[in-house]
Amino acid sequence: MSKILDVYLSGALAGRLVQTDAGRLEFTYDPGWVGSPHAASLSQSLPLRTEPFDHDACRPFFAGLLPEGELRTRIAAVVGISARNDFAFLEQLGGECAGAVTLLPEGAPYPKPEAFRSRPLDEHDLAEVLRRLPGRPLLAGEAGVRLSLAGAQAKIAVLVEGDRLALPLDGAPSSHIVKAKIAGFPDTVRNEAFCLRLARRLDLSAVDAAVGVAEDEPYLLVTRYDRIRSADHGLVRLHQEDFCQALARPPELKYQSEGGPTLADCFALVRRTSTRPAIDLMALLDAVVFNALVGNHDAHAKNYSLVYTRESAALAPLYDVVSTVVYPELSTRLAMRIGGQPELARVMPRHWDRMAEATGLAAPALKRRVAALAERAEAEAERAAEELAAGQRSPVVDQCRTAVCARARGVLENLARGRG
After folding, report:
1. Number of domains within the chain
2. CA dist., res. 123 & res. 214, Å (int)
3. Final residue before a domain boundary, out of 105, 136, 171
4. Which of 59, 253, 293, 297 makes a 20 to 30 Å CA pair with 151?
5. Pairing of strands 12-19, 3-9
């Protein structure tokens, strides 16, 4: 027997997701939604229409809302579902997702703000949550907790009011994400905090993040860019989607080497989607160069997103930026190649030229921007590390700073060879 979930966008019924008897997904927009003057599509890959979208067409967007890898396996074991059943995951977790999407059992009313609840988290409570996340990702299966965050890192969505944290329940929106340390990799919390701070020092758009410690558990508190405060101080969900969702690539194909999006695909997406393409194309170039400079070799297409309002579509701020190069056991290959070259140290002017041709950018302007960011990176990396230290240096942050400086100098040397 088919199963159905109602799909809401910004609180309005947008369509229905069906799991057929054969276990396949099918999505259909609600006729009332399609006919509404304010209707918007869930995704660039799911344009408004009355005809249904089959499994292959709709799965990339809906699977893209869900956690990945080992987190899926653990959640499946906790709540008693198959690790490969996207519909069952959405049924369990789809109350608070990235963007403005909410999935509810067929016919269930959309929760009203007055019914929202939250559970306060003092320092001890937060520490306990952080300790439990590895075994119970997203606190899946706990009463009132029904939220989903994409990716493979342990994290939880929270509501921040002043200096107080709370766990949103029963479909209430969250305002921040708490990211836990990654087991086996030293000080990933401060690593990411350093990278985001450096991005902001370079005048790039990046999410706001702060390091916290609950008892002995470090964490990164990240402000959600897909949530804003309304005039009455309530939270409003902004819709967003990552580049894999927009380009109809399922999350298991997020890497270019496995058939995932290329930089050419990403720039073409921004060019045809953004309401301010000139600004966002340069912002995307900056993001690509910055990820290369900090050694974030995991900057795949799910780490870039579009955020939507009724009037606009824009590139989201930088997020999920970690200097993976400081962990020797991780790959040194860029998730998306620059001009066909996966190793930054081997990127020469001809590779930047090829990237410019593939992405529709002017090669001289592109290389000037690369050089400008690389030239500023060394001094700003030192300042970012000092700001983050607050009297106590982190060995990993020092490694990140050293890596940025070395990579920036290498980029500039290789660009200079092209002028010789």
Report:
1. 3
2. 5
3. 105
4. 293
5. antiparallel
Place of tokens 């080497």: 257
Q: Is residue 127 part of a domain?
A: yes
Res 312 pLDDT > 90: yes
Q: Are the beta carbons of 149 and 95 closer than 8 angstroms?
A: no
Are 237 and 173 a contacting pair, CB within 8 Å? yes
Q: Angle CA(148)–CA(330)–CA(297) in degrees, nearest 5?
A: 70
Are residues 350 and 329 part of one domain? Answer: yes
Q: What is the mean pLDDT of residues 383-406?
A: 89
**Given 86, 105, 124, which residue is the final one in a domain?**
105
115: how many CB neighbours lie within 10 A of its CB? 12
Q: Are residues 249 and 389 in the same domain?
A: yes
**Confidence at residue 1, expressed as pLDDT on a 0 to 100 scale:** 64
Q: Which residue range forms the structural domain that includes residue 128?
A: 113-223
Q: Note the pTM of the prediction, 2 decimals.
A: 0.96
pLDDT reading at 249 higher than 70 = yes
Residue 373 is encoded by which pair of tokens?
């960011």
79 and 123 share a domain?
Answer: no
Q: Active site residue: 86, 280, 286, 298, which one?
A: 298
Whether residue 244 is contained in a domain is answered as yes
Give the whole-angstrom CA distance, residue 237 versus residue 190: 28
* Per-residue model confidence (pLDDT) at position 420: 40
CA–CA distances in Å: residue 162 to residues 9, 10, 159, 248? 28, 25, 10, 39
